[in-house]
Amino acid sequence: MNASGARTLYEKIWARHLVDEDEQGNCLIYVDRHLVHEVTSPVAFSALRQNGRSVRRADATYAIVDHGVPSDPALRRGPIRDAALREQIDALERNAADFGIRLISVHDPHQGIVHVVGPELGLTLPGCTIACGDSHTTTHGALGALAFGIGTSEIEHVLATQTLRLRRSKTMRLSVDGELPFGATAKDLILAVIGKIGADGAIGHAVEFAGRAIAALSIEGRMTICNMSVEAGARAGLIAPDETTYCYLAGRAHAPRGDLFDRAVEDWHSLASDGDAAFDREVAVTAADIEPQVTWGTNPEQVVPIGGQVPSPQGLTDPAKRAAASRALDYMGLRPGTRMTDIRIDQVFIGSCTNGQIEDIRAAARVAKDRKVAPWVKAMVVPGSQRVKRRAEDEGLDKILTAAGFSWREPSCSMCAGFNGDEVGRGERCASTSNRNFEGRQGSGARTHLVSPAMAAAAAIVGCLADVRKLID
Fold this sequence. Notes:
By secondary structure, the chain is α/β, with parallel strands linked by helices. The protein has helices spanning 9-17, 42-50, 73-76, 83-99, 114-120, 152-161, 186-197, 212-215, 219-227, 243-249, 259-269, 319-332, 352-355, 358-368, 386-394, 397-404, 453-462; strands at 18-21, 26-30, 33-36, 61-64, 102-104, 129-132, 146-149, 163-167, 170-177, 205-210, 236-238, 281-286, 293-295, 303-305, 347-350, 378-381, 407-408, 429-432, 447-450. It is built from 17 helices and 19 strands. The radius of gyration is 22 Å and the shape is globular.
C-alpha cells in the first residue's frame, strides 16, 4: 500500500484475510476454500489422525478426485488398475467420509479436474482465498480470488486451523494492451509472456494481469492465463472481477443468489486495484505482437512463434540459460535452425486444467471439422469436467472430433502428467495443451511441445507442428 492508502487487488484481499502478523513479517491468513485431491492429501489426513485433530471447517473443504481417474472410458468402468492410484482414490473417499467433507467422486456428475470444477460450481468467488495441494491453484485467480498451491504440511495446517502461514508477496502488474491478432489465443498470450519475462521472471510476486486484451478474454481464457502464471514463478495470478466475471458466476450452485448476489457484486466491484495503487514491478506487453506460440525446449520459457526456428543456445548471454538450452535441445532431439513447422509429431493431447474447457474443445473441433488426423498421429481430447463433456456432446463436438480420428475421453488430468497409461512414448513428440514441458512430464523420455488447443488440432491434422492460421478462415 502506498502513502496515499491506495491498494492493489492483491493487497485488498490480503488485508481482508489477515489474522495476525509478527515482527518478522510472518502472517497468518484465513482460507475461505480448501480444495483437496487424492495425490497430495493422504499424508495430511493421516497426520490429523495421529495428532487427534479434526477438520476445522469441513463445510469449507471439498474433496475432488481428478489425477488418478482413468480417461479411458473402458478403464473407468472397472477397478482402477494402477494399485497406487487406486489406493490414493480409496484413501480420499475414506478421509472425506471420516472427516465429513463433501466428496466429488469418480462417478459424480460434477467430477472433473479440481481447477475446472471449483469455478464451475461457484466455489471460486472474487475476493476469497483458495488453497489446494497443487501448484496450478493459481487458476482460480481468473475470477479475482487469491489462490495458491500448498505443500503437504500446509494442507494439514489448513485442514486443522483453516489458516495458512505466509509472507506477503511483492506485486507485479502485467498489462497487455490492444487486441490479440487472428489465430492468437490466451494460451499463446501467456506463453509469449513467459518467453518474455522468463520462467523465473515473477518469482516472489503476485501478478495482476490487466489491460484491454485481458479484459476481452472469457473466464476460460483468463483461467488459462492465471493457470500458467506459476510457470513464470508467480505465487499467484489475479485478474480483477468485472461484468464478465459476474455473468459467469450468476446462477452457479455455490454462488450467492438474489439480493445476496447483487450485494456481492457491489462488494466485488470494489476489489479492483485503485487507480493510483503502486506495484513493485510493471511489465507491458503489446497484444498485436503475439502470434501462435510453440515451445521447443523443456520449460515454458523456451518458446517461439510457430513461424520461427529452433534457436541456438549461443545466442543467449546468460551462461545458465545457455547451458539449459543446450541440455533441452539434446533431450528434445532438435538442432538450431530447424523450422518449427518441419517438426513431425507422434501424439496430440488436448485437455488439462489449462485447456480442458468448452471453448478449448470448440476451438479444436473448428480445426478438425471435415478433416482427418494424420495416420501416424495418436490424438486424444480429455474434457476438464463432466459438465464440459456433457456440453460438448450436446453441441456435437465429440462427433466432429471422433470423425476426424481423435479419441474422446472422460475427465481426468490424464496425459498432462502421464497418469493411467496416458503417456507419450520414449523419444516421441506430443503437441500438448497442458502447462509443463519438463523432461519426463508426459512419460519417461517424452518430448512435449506446448501449444493452444487450435494449434494442437492443427498439428494432429498435418502431422507436424503447424500454423493454425493456414487451416482456418
